[in-house]
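Incident review: delayed structure delivery

Summary: a single-chain prediction request sat in the queue longer than the usual turnaround. Root cause was a stuck worker, restarted by the on-call engineer. No data loss occurred. The affected request and its eventual output are reproduced below so the record is complete for anyone auditing the incident later.

Affected input:
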Amino acid sequence: MPIFYPALGPLGTEKDFITRQMAKDKISKVLTLFKRYRLILLTGAALCAVFLLISLSIFYWVEEGHEKQVFYHKLADFLMELGQTIMGTLIIGGTLGGIYNFLHEEYQKEEDAVKERLSSIRESSNKRKLFRREVRNKLQQVHDDIELARILIRAHRSGRTYGEQLRTRIMPSMIALQDLKRDLIDVADEELITHLPELQVSITYMAAYLQVLIEEFSHHYLEISNLQTFQDVLANRRRQVFTDVLEKQEDKTRVFLEQTTELFENRTVPSRIETVWAAIGNLDYVCDFIADLRNDQGQASLYQLYCLDHHFHCMRMLRHRNSQVNEKIVNRANFKFYLKELERLTEKKNSDQPISKEDSLTRIIMTRGLKFDFGIMKMSKE
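Output delivered after worker restart:
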């Protein structure tokens, strides 16, 4: 079955890849063989040439009728056969055998090298897949926690649930996003993620939205908590008064009115007791958080634009190495500006320039995009 190796392109099967790699540089292998056995080959060729030359010289110089003609001719025949034997040994036993052994040895080395290279490619590919899968899993966990917090706050309508969900889900999700941003900064292999800057900006969008929820919580929760406590105490007291009235054997209506008058005789009762839910509804960002994703006019909420859209954008870019960006997201008004800001801030942080609290892409998105005013801890109304 064809295999795709990212670093090398489509190569067919592993066997095809190995065959193509080993078919290269055959001439260089033969030249290397001759260099390795050059002394033996030259020595054998020289001996063969000497023996043949002596044999031919004997046949040429020894005339017919010479008293030692038979001896010299036999010597010449012997030297001729010896030269031929040496030549045959060099050609068949030496050259061909040496070539075969050498090529077989080189074949094994090349095969081992190619297999090692393929193993390295697989390991690198698996590393990239594992990294993208881990980032996707973390982002999905962040999304699930945010959605669960949104549902519970909206369903319970209490200051207690609001505080619990901000502490147990929104704040940990914010920390998880910050950890992801640090992990992406430390990525040395650019092949892990193709569109790394776009991914960093989208994660920062999500972090900025969670940060405004946390800032709003830190500024207003004491008021919400006190109101929740007052409302709980008042509800408990009402239940207690009602229980006391029911336990009397006298006229229940008269006793209830008397005890109620006595209870509030020296107390200042607000003309309008504001409920906790109404107070939470006055908080701009949490109100946006728990509202419908689109209003009656079809306008998307900040939660949709700054959190959900960018969550799904990140998941799309992390699907595989060659995944493309969402053009609708990256072509939004401020996205390209934030990309340039990311580049500027990265260069500044890598230099010797002093870093201030304003040198934060999260803070820039909070103030420029989400209109968050750190001075009054409230959304600026335009």
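Verification: DSSP finds 13 helices and four strands in the chain.
Action items: add queue-age alerting; document worker restart procedure.
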